[in-house]
Amino acid sequence: MRNVRRIFRVVLFVIAGLYLHYTLPQHDVAKVTGISDRLERLSSFQQIFYNQVDLGSAEGDMRDLRLINTVKVDTWFLGLWRGGERVMVYRNEDTGVYPPYFKFDSSDLEAEASALAGKEQWVSITHYGWRMRFLSIYPNAISIKPVSGPEYRPFPWFNLFFFAFLIVGFFFVRAMWRQFVERTVDPTMDALEDGYDMRKSRVQKWLDSWRSK
User: Fold this and answer.
1) Which of 3, 41, 88, 114 has its CA at 20 to 30 Å from residue 79's CA atom?
2) What is the pLDDT of residues 149-172, one digit of tens each?
């Protein structure tokens, strides 16, 4: 039973980690090489990774994908190690209120990317999501900001504060739960055990009285 609990906790931890890695903002240093639009029919599984259609458009399995083509600095381990350059394609779609980026300006972002296309201007692209080539899944670009060059290293301030808040909140809830157990659950269990012992003692005395006869 203990092993089942451990496996269950590990599975929950992995699911939570993947969810946070997908939805939390990431920053890539890249050059915009072009933009493109593509009409694509999305499968039911693919639609999980896409948001609502742009406001004013009809919902359906056919999606007009706005894509931003780039060449980005290749990084590993949260940007601590850097390699050469590789191509990366981002999608550009509104998010609405979930994930809570409140992005409603995909047309403006497309205009910004179009103005940067083909230039040697390095930019920091804030995005979330994953690139899965075999499923045609693209990370969603949230914003584009010009930077000094490929050596620029964006610092994930939001993620740092988010995890700090998560850790503080975890210990706060844990302390509250322990106080609740200590003040409410434990006294209730002790009272139930005392009552059970008293009833058991009375029954035992009654049985002993019959045995003595």
Assistant:
1) 114
2) 999 998 889 999 999 999 999 999
Domain at 25-155, CATH from 1.10.287, 1.10.10, 2.40.50, 1.20.5: 2.40.50
Q: Where are the domains of the chain?
A: 25-155, 156-213
Rg (CA), the chain: 28
SS3 per-residue string spanning the chain: CHHHHHHHHHHHHHHHHHHHHHHCCEEEEEEEEEEEEEEEECCCCHHHHCCCCCCCCCCCCEEEEEEEEEEEEEEECCCCEEEEEEEEEEECCCCCCCCCCCCCCHHHHHHHHHHHCCCCCEEEEEEECCCEHHHCECCEEEEEEECCCCCCCCCCHHHHHHHHHHHHHHHHHHHHHHHHHHHHHHHHHHHHHHHHHHHHHHHHHHHHHHHHC
- Entry pTM: 0.80
Using CA atoms, how far residue 176 sits from 155, 163, 170, 181, 185, in Å, is 33, 20, 10, 9, 13
- 18-32, pLDDT tens digit by residue? 999 999 999 999 999
